[in-house]
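Re: the 239-residue chain
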Amino acid sequence: MIRNLLLISTSTTHGTGYLEHAEEEMKNLLKGKSSILFIPYARPGGISHKAYTDKAREPFEKWGISVTGVHEYEDPTKAVQEAEAVFIGGGNTFVLLRNLYQNKLVKPLQERVNKGMPYIGTSAGTNVAGKTIGTTNDMPIVHVKTFDALQLVPFNINPHFQDPDPNSTHMGETRDTRIAEFHHHNRQPVVGLREGSMLRVHGDRVNLLGPHTARVFLQSEKPMEFKPSDDISFLMEAY
């Protein structure tokens, strides 16, 4: 497989504009491309597909890359098959995955990405790049027939990963606890991506980018921390 992915924890970090914190990495991924197909199916806050696409269009056009929304095409499958690159934005992961299946885009996306088409995901768009959506933070506001995601990588991701606040009086489960519960029933690794962090996947290589460490969870093992620029390609064959 000729994977060429940029999987980003969030589209906006504190003090930055939309996609601004990942600008250089996105430009590098899209070098030589003049257009990108945006899939707005997650629809954050209930905004329309058009409004969401207009928002995504602003930064890309500053970089000389035109943006069209998949909803603008009569045949979404053909749009994916002919796209130079694809970007899937954030919102609700369950809504996103249901729409990907309903519009029959799962297999076309898998086929194109496996042949080298650049793929960018943020938040929910990063969730669906993994093996399943079983480690999303979202509420299941719609029913999905399966948790199986695009499986562009053989592990799961937990975007917006948060560490416990030692000064908090909150007595609920930590993110570590919830991922440990996930591993009682599932084998695949989970990458906890903190805000501003991203994974660059090229072929079978996986590198952590951004300002923060990432926490990697393997079934029945103590969580591990990895630094930016670390090679964590073992995730591709972790089980």
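The mean pLDDT is 94.
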